[in-house]
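agent> fetching stored inputs for the protoporphyrin IX containing FE docking request
agent> found them:
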Amino acid sequence: MAWSSLSAPELLFSICCIHLFIYYFFRYFVSSKHKQPTVPVCWPVVGMMPAVIFNIQDLHAWATGILHVTGCNFFFSGGWLPGMKFFGTCDPLNIQHIFTSNFKNYPKGEEFLDIFDILGDGIFNSDGDVWRTQRVKMQQLITHSCFRAYVAKSSRDNVEKALLPFLAHAAKQGHAIDLQDVYLRFTFNITTKLVFGVDPNALSIGLPTVPFARAMDDAMASVLFRHAMPVIIWKLLQKLNMGTEKKLANARKVIDRFVEETIEKRRAEKKETKQIEYLPDLLSSYIDGSETGKVDKFLRDTTVNLMLGGRDGAGVGLSWFFWLLMQNPHVEGKILDELKSVPKSFTSDGMVIFNPEELTKLVYLHAALSEALRLYPPVPFEHKGVVKDDMLPSGFLATPGVKILISTYSMARMEGVWGKDCSEFKPERWISDNGKLKYEPSYKFLSFNTGPRACLGKNMAFTEMKAAAAAVVYNFYFEVVEGHVITPKISIILQMKNGLMVKVKQRNVIM
Ligand code: HEM
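agent> prediction call returned; pasting tokens
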């Protein structure tokens, strides 16, 4: 029957039927949005892909729902689509096995390297000897006492000269500001200083555009889509320079230009001053005087990796932390109480500032930051490949070709792992009966990763976050703009999709 031969009411009726069919198809067979989370239907040819496409904007919550009903482990099949077999897990025993006990069998893998090609051969992206050599060198630099002192000084300087003055100005003006943008600029300032020895002044009044930071965000969002798409599709988009791949290619150009220019600037400075003594920024430690293209590729990859690790984790962590404080004023009150006993200094405008060294002793502040990082891990999932057949503690046989996805976000929301109150923001869970910090194994508190590839910047991140959190809580409080919706952005980094729009209020400082 040709459509043209239908009468108007028949055509209308047919269109309604098709719409109803599509609606019920998604409602009952594909989507888990409108009912209790359930395992997605595996369709012929395309497997569970329709469910991913339908839920991609709510990916973390959707995956958490599935892992909840399946007891922390779930095999996802993309049907006949190549490279689309995933094993999703947030089971601590599997995690300990994958990341530590049988670490060698679970590298990041070739495909990860391909997906994250923007990171080059840097530490996040490499395996085997290439990774080990970089890790040893970076560990030596980051744990050096001079570098640790440099981190503390840069954090304090940036709180005093950039963060507090910016917030004081915003409080005076009475305009709403995006607090997430502010914290990402704050950590961008510190990280650029630590990595390149240069302060980009990204938090100056007027908030200059920071093309590098925008490019990094675009790149990470585009990379997530590579995870959710068959390789042939994103490679085709890359060839055609379309969609998310076009965005990624543009981001790459901006990132490379920034790194190239900054390295050149630093190199020229080094030549001019002929400094031979230890310089605390990481770039200076890597510049060896040679100027071959090979060294520049190495420097480019190293610095891009450090910028990613350094800026995003702490900036995003601070944003979720302050949002949680706004929902839980009793926690903010306890932090203020704890800060009363800490020695204080004053800025030229009479605002209170703390010495990073003094803040290392605070139990409640550390517990509250850890709790925010538990509930909103800045890296919400990890990706591993499989070298050879291996039985996981949960009974799943991991085989080459299957990708293992570990959901850090979901792990925080499993009653079996964190107890019945797992979804609550409760710093007290980190404090033992004797008032000291409670140890939680890193295969359970996975926010900084676990095993031989655990985060190298954890202490540095806590130093920056405590310096900002203590001074900001002491001098200001915030109110979320009415009607502003807080929801995670779908990206490799757990940013807030719409930012964190707040009004800033100056607190009457308690001496
Ligand atoms: C709250 C802040 C931070 C969080 C939550 C965080 C989290 C993580 C996570 C989850 C990984 C594992 C990534 C992967 O293998 O896929 C990682 C690795 C790493 N992080 Fe961090 N990070 C933070 C801050 C920093 C800082 C400030 C630095 C310093 C530059 C840093 C340096 C690194 C490095 C070098 C690695 C690679 C380790 C390796 O593969 O051997 N991180 N981090």
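agent> quick read of the result: The CA atoms of residues 5 and 123 lie 65 Å apart.
agent> awaiting further instructions
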